[in-house]
Automatic annotation (TrEMBL), chains A, B:
It comes from the Bacteria. Keywords: DNA-binding, Transcription, Transcription regulation. InterPro entries: LysR_HTH_N, LysR_subst-bd, WH-like_DNA-bd_sf, WH_DNA-bd_sf. GO terms for molecular function: DNA-binding transcription factor activity; transcription cis-regulatory region binding. Residues 1-58 form the HTH lysR-type domain. The lineage of its organism: Bacteria, Pseudomonadati, Pseudomonadota, Alphaproteobacteria, Hyphomicrobiales. Gene3D superfamilies: Periplasmic binding protein-like II, Winged helix-like DNA-binding domain superfamily/Winged helix DNA-binding domain. The keyword Coiled coil does not apply. Pfam families: HTH_1, LysR_substrate. Belongs to the LysR transcriptional regulatory family. This is LysR family transcriptional regulator.
Amino acid sequence: MDIVLLKTLLAVAETGSFSGAANSLHCVQSNVTSRIRRLEDHFGQKIFLRGKAGAKLTDFGERLHAKAEDLLQLFAAAERELLDASGAGAPLSLGSMETTAAVRLPALLKRLKGRSPASSVSLKTGPTADLLAMVRDRKIDAAFVAGPVDSTRFNAVRAFTERLVCARNPANPDNGSLLAFRTGCSYRATAQAWLKSLGRSDTEITEMGTLDGILGCVAAGLGFAVAPEEAVRGARDADQIEIAPLPEPFATVDTFLVWRIDHVPVEAHRTLIEVLEGHS
Amino acid sequence: MDIVLLKTLLAVAETGSFSGAANSLHCVQSNVTSRIRRLEDHFGQKIFLRGKAGAKLTDFGERLHAKAEDLLQLFAAAERELLDASGAGAPLSLGSMETTAAVRLPALLKRLKGRSPASSVSLKTGPTADLLAMVRDRKIDAAFVAGPVDSTRFNAVRAFTERLVCARNPANPDNGSLLAFRTGCSYRATAQAWLKSLGRSDTEITEMGTLDGILGCVAAGLGFAVAPEEAVRGARDADQIEIAPLPEPFATVDTFLVWRIDHVPVEAHRTLIEVLEGHS
DNA sequence: AAATAATATCTCTAAATTTGATATATGGAT
DNA sequence: ATCCATATATCAAATTTAGAGATATTATTT
């Protein structure tokens, strides 16, 4: 039972097909076939039912899959800890909301680099809900998300406190649609709650993928947005955007760094926590 | 981090030398060197301090060793369970006291074979203390040992009840030395306790490795032995051996099948338990 | 300084894995 | 029914990797 075989098993189960797995593993499909067959030969059992619809786990396949997930997870965790202990500095993969990444992280990561020069840090951005799912599934080590945080499942330290404002165009302050990130973004949820409190639940919503895009549209007069004050002030077209305060409780949002409760932080992660705790 | 590398690490740590590990792994020493180096390269850390005195784990090596032990153990347990679930029948490795193996196991294993034809069973013999150590260290799945059993660490089912007797030569019934297995054999301990109760603690003890040897010597008039009645009756030279009863509490000894409390029995093992429970 | 006992290095060979091309199967549309 | 699209399976060649065996190096002891 080799590790590569188990990884292949997971990839097939996840993508639902041999060719999909080959793609995600960056190898050819005949390879996936051969690895799965090696596993099947080893146990003398079919692991996948093949069909046009794709590959489906058999009962035995399910059991093997469950074990493989556990084992690979333990293996990865052990390796991470050891790499960390080896002084080489285990990589730290972070997630962050788009706005936080734009406004807060550059300075923070610079300070982190100063304190832990050896470690490499990678960053994925996305809305709070997606980030929490990634942390839950161990796809990333930790993430910056908007509070509040479910403390039964995640460890958290407060990282920043944002003041949310309404960014609008001076020309037509109350018109146009709400420009927001896709569902899952906590600022969008806050914006909708605010509009609801004003009896404006029917406001049209335009989804956009990036903060720059949203603020650019606001500057162009296409609508208004809810975003952290810092982000709006730092925008490219800040001079064409008017900032209006939001009433409480919508105005104040804490951003937390969160990670799985059973996740042992690597050195870079510990340093990050220290920096945040010393700073807040 | 490959599994073979971790196994090699354990072997070097256990034998205390690269060449010793090569020997125990049935490969050449240069192989061991290369595998350990692969590990060391991977983590950028020395794992062993090499010296004339042998190989000693570094601090980092100790951590890696601890993790490797855990991971390999989990891997092996998972594979065992899956092989068992696959219907192929996971192998069952048993241990047994020499006398039990000679007198009781043939019939028992035949019945087991009848009920679980697919599974393969292997057997190691040794004294009770060694067997318990092997079960503790997961070298074997289960063992037949003399009671009583520490039930906080082992699961146990009673397998047989032996009546211990004193086997002696009719010609010189009370002379000669006690012929016994080496230290760790529970019958030997019983024999010594009995002799002590008779005020004969000073009786000379001759160690022998096999039951046949012991009984052969008894027949030849070299001494006497304490052994299960069945074993003595079935001996090759039974007609030249006289059987004398032992007083209680020395006469009755239960033999148990024991296994680690955290060990999940495979199919052949479960069948064996059933047979023993149905029979006792 | 030689002898010894250990690990390291090197080359060759064997085995296993990956590739890429192609064959085969399966389900749906024409 | 036949063809088409999308899967997986098979096969031979190429590549990579690990193992064996011979030899070199190192460190310790005498």
